[in-house]
Specification:
The chain is 74% helix and 4% strand. By secondary structure, the chain is mostly helical. The protein has a single domain, classed as A middle domain of Talin 1. The longest helix is centred in the middle third of the chain and has 34 residues. The protein is globular. The mean pLDDT is 78.
């Protein structure tokens, strides 16, 4: 299903803004529903953030990358660029903004550290699999005229391993919830019924899904047809930012509402899902996802670097800081400027 109206600049902008508004509203309700579920089931908030919320806010990336992979003859850079660009955006921009609004306090080392190790291990598997898997025999000329030279691929077997890795991560998040500490909730607080929270969660996820499609498809039309920006730059900046808006809304609203663990858990979980599902599913479906040198040697290492920059200081200090947030945000701005200059 396509939500873009490429023949009309006016309607493209209207639909772009409509998608942004829908994502903001649905993201706010998604946080409310996830927190209510956590309270009803006595589950630590970071577990909910790293599983249920992360899966819901990563749906746009999964949709965009899978669609791009199935139609890879039109957009071979979208799948990988969207996944890695979203990780960089989630960590540097969104988590950075979260720290600027309200720095994390009393960070749970056990909960965060094993998820960080899982992320680094997944990135290493991805890097090695691409490094030692033959690239497609022929280069590819994109619709914008750019010649793509691939250095390696993620094959179907590795794609299946990544999807199974998601199942392992979800299982561990539930199994190890005790190590996150007991959830501290006010027993006298009025909490939404479980069925109502689940219904709101589903409706909100659908809203995020539709809103992200409106924003991404029409944003892509604006970038390619009117701004004349190359495809890869669109993938790692505009599309990555567009599909990461649910994480942005979730992080900001959870920080404002004092539910910072949901936002932090969402960022960590969403970043893992971006590698496990956003790359794993298209690779499983199509048989291979090709990487360019830029994606393998710059975007993937940078994704790991910004995660280390976010998590390690928190593990050492047991809390975040606004200085850390400012450094991450400025780093993301620099990355976007470099991407456009080096296009």
């Amino acid at each position: 299903m396509s939500f873009s109206v490429p023949d009309s600049l006016f309607w493209t902008i209207v639909l772009f803004l409509a998608g942004l508004g829908l994502i903001c509203i649905a993201g706010d309700k998604f946080v409310d529903a996830a927190v209510a579920i956590a309270k009803r089931l006595k589950i630590p908030q970071i577990v909910v953030g790293a599983t249920i919320v992360s899966l819901g806010t990563t749906l746009p990336e999964i949709l965009v990358s899978t669609t791009a992979a199935v139609g890879s003859a039109q957009s071979p850079d979208i799948s990988v660029g969207n996944a890695l660009g979203s990780i960089i955006c989630n960590t540097a921009l969104i988590a950075g903004i979260g720290q600027l609004i309200r720095p994390a306090k009393d960070v749970k080392s056990k909960s965060v550290s094993w998820r960080m190790l899982f992320f680094v291990a997944t990135a290493l598997v991805l890097f090695l699999s691409v490094l030692f898997t033959p690239a497609p025999a022929n280069d590819f000329r994109a619709p914008d005229g750019t010649v793509k030279h691939f250095v390696g691929t993620v094959g179907r077997i590795v794609g299946i391993v990544l999807v199974l890795g998601f199942c392992v991560y979800a299982f561990l998040s539930i199994k190890l919830k005790d190590s996150d500490g007991e959830a501290e909730y006010d027993e006298t607080e009025k909490i939404m019924p479980l069925w109502g929270a689940l219904l709101m969660l589903v409706i909100s996820a659908a809203g995020l899904f539709v809103g992200a499609n409106l924003l991404v498809e029409n944003g892509q039309v604006l970038a390619l047809d009117y701004l004349k920006v190359p495809e890869r730059v669109v993938a790692v900046t505009m599309i990555a930012l567009g599909t990461s808006l649910p994480e942005l809304v979730t992080t900001v609203t959870s920080s404002i509402k004092g539910q910072g663990d949901v936002g932090l858990g969402n960022i960590i979980g969403a970043n893992l899902f971006n590698m496990l599902l956003v790359i794993g599913l298209p690779a499983t479906i199509t048989g291979n996802i090709a990487f360019t040198a830029q994606s393998l040697y710059i975007d993937l290492p940078l994704a790991v670097l910004v995660m280390v920059g976010l998590i390690v200081p928190m593990l050492i200090r047991k809390k975040g800081s606004r200085v850390q947030g400012a450094i991450l945000v400025l780093g993301y701005i620099g990355y976007c400027v470099w991407s456009f200059i080096g296009k």
